[in-house]
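Hi both,

Apologies for the delay on this - the queue was longer than expected. I finally got the zinc ion-bound model through. Below you'll find the protein sequence and the ligand SMILES exactly as submitted, and right after that the structure tokens for the full complex including the ligand.
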Amino acid sequence: MSYARLDFSSSVNVFLDCNGYFVCELCQFSRQAIGEVGDFHAASTDEIVEHLEAHVEAGGLVPRGAFERLREDQEENDVWLRDLWRKRTA
Ligand SMILES: [Zn+2]
């Protein structure tokens, strides 16, 4: 499930990964010591929304629709994530 794609209106690529987390792909905040850019993972809707707000504060472009759709899907996504991790750690 994609929430934002890199294009003229978005500087982030964000999706819900079927492995059980949100991904902010090639995230500017996950830069590692040697200058590699990696992915940021978030375990809940609140966490990815907070992360995307940090992108906006840093001057990044995040489409308003991404926030709206994340909130629309929040209940379903967070229940799915919680159930998935509960099963994995059981
Ligand atoms: Zn990011």
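Main takeaway for now: The longest helix spans residues 74-89.

I'll put the files on the shared drive as well.

H.
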